[in-house]
Amino acid sequence: MVMRWSRWVSSSMVVCVAASAAAQERVDEALLQWFVSDGAATADVAALREPLTRDAAAALLPEVVAACRAAQRQRGRDTLPAPVSEVAKATPGELRVGDYVMPFVLLAKGEKPAGGWPLYLCLHGGGGNSEAKGPHAWSVNTREWQAQQRLFERVYEAPGLYFIPRMADDRQGRWWFAHNQRAFDEVIRKAILFLGVDPDRVYMMGISEGGYGAIRFAGNRPDRFAATGGMAAAEPLGTSPPENMRNVAMRIDIGEQDTMFDRVGLARRMGERLAQLHEQDAAGYDFVVNVQAGRGHGIDYSLTPAWLADKVREPRPSRVVWTVKPFDREVELRCYWLALPEVPAALPLRLVAEVGGNKLAIAAQVVTKGDDGGEVVAPASGKLLVRLDDALVDLDAPIEVSVNGSSRGAVKVVRTARTMLRTMAERWDPRGCFCAELEVDLAPR
Fold it and tell me: In the beta sheet, which residues pair with residue 321?
């Protein structure tokens, strides 16, 4: 592999290029060691902070991805099995997250597209049974897991890789619990790096309890998915913030007679709120709430996967809406090109960030409920990290920044290898790797 960067030599490591095999070998080894050591080995190397040109940053990206992949292999973190095309030939694997063990099968349908496999996370129904004799002892969850595998054979779309997990602990249930969040993140990371998955075509869908999970992930982890789909399921607005679904497509299919737990009522209210949001922001909120006439809790399951298959994630939307709040015990610190250096002192934190024409506008407020049930809005504080690259702004020119309508002036942001390494390490997602970062103080001035 030959690099064509314009400059560079450092006494301790090489980041920009000299066009020789020896220099290239030092580049590859330096990047590899960064990922192997989780950044510790090279965190303070000055060359990592040196400004890169636009072309140099673009040339570095495939090297960063290759180093991340090689480092995870070296650390034994490439452990997903090869997918098989027939359920009968699938040997269940086990995904371990702390004390939890999640059985799963990984299946492939059709031929791998040129741009990479679509990946579907398929969550079964059932749920939790506190009386179960063990983590995988409840027959209902076993039966529902097997039903998902039959749907792969009969209904689900080609092409695609299908990760079909079984509930990690029947005594708890709930696909949105923290250990499941970590498990799904691990699967997505490994599938992107080692199974040729297109990072912009990752989907989650589920039935009943699994559908609850898919809707919650749309409202709490939207930037991981192109689309999610809940079948025979619905969620309250408070557990699955619809404003966060601005850039992820979301579909609900529900029977008109599915009244237990007010499922059809919840679905309709979610649809009404998303329609309001779309009316206010026509470039966002791609959704369908389809109430199937004459159906109860059993519905036509073919509609959701067919709808999801056409959706593609935009990892750099011009507008990000992010209500930061706990998702089970986790508080996510990244959403598209926004990130937080730590959990905010006051939650929920409502962030709206918009970029265009080298202007960055941020609105940040702490929003709570008053005694009368209405919203109480207070100024935000703390820091916000804005990740940038030349797809979002022209990094060779100043960027005009405003917070809550107040100008912060024009700032110049530099591209660095360090930012690329850090953002790639967070998610193992080449499309989520950024070359520049701007820290913004949210406190009023």
Answer: 352
Q: Please tell me whether residues 63 and 96 are part of one structural domain.
A: no
Last residue of a domain, one of 241, 273, 308: 308
Domain edge (last residue) among 275, 308, 341: 308
Decide if pLDDT at 15 tops 50.
no
Q: What sign has the CA pseudo-torsion 29, 27, 414, 432? A: negative
Total number of domains constituting the chain = 3
DSSP bridge partners of 406 = 403
Tell me how far apart the alpha carbons of residues 56 and 63 are, in angstroms, rounded to a whole number.
Answer: 11
Distance CA 381, CA 367 (A): 13
Assess whether pLDDT exceeds 80 at residue 253: yes
- 336 in the Ramachandran plot: left (φ > 0), alpha (ψ -120 to 50) or beta? left
- Do 338 and 303 lie in one domain? The reply is no
Residue from 263, 139, 252 nearest 205 by CA: 252
Could you tell me how far CA 426 lies from the centroid of its own chain? 11
Q: Is the pLDDT of residue 301 over 50?
A: yes
396-420 pLDDT per residue, tens = 999 999 999 999 999 999 999 999 9
Same domain, 200 and 114: yes
Q: Is-above-0.90 flag for pTM? A: yes
Query: Do residues 208 and 96 share a domain?
Result: yes
191: domain CATH number is 3.40.50.1820
Q: What is the per-residue pLDDT for 38?
A: 84
Indicate if 266 and 163 belong to the same structural domain.
Answer: yes
| Averaged pLDDT for residues 65-81 | 94
Q: Is the pLDDT of residue 210 over 60?
A: yes
Distance between CA atoms of residues 117 and 151, nearest Å: 19
Amino acid at position 414, single letter: V
* Distances in whole angstroms, Cα of residue 388 to Cα of each of 194, 222, 302, 409: 26, 19, 39, 17
Whole domain around residue 362: which residue ranges?
319-441
Give the Cα separation of 292 and 256 in Å (integer): 6
- Name the strand (E) or helix (H) holding 189: helix 178-194
Please report whether residue 56 resides in a domain: yes
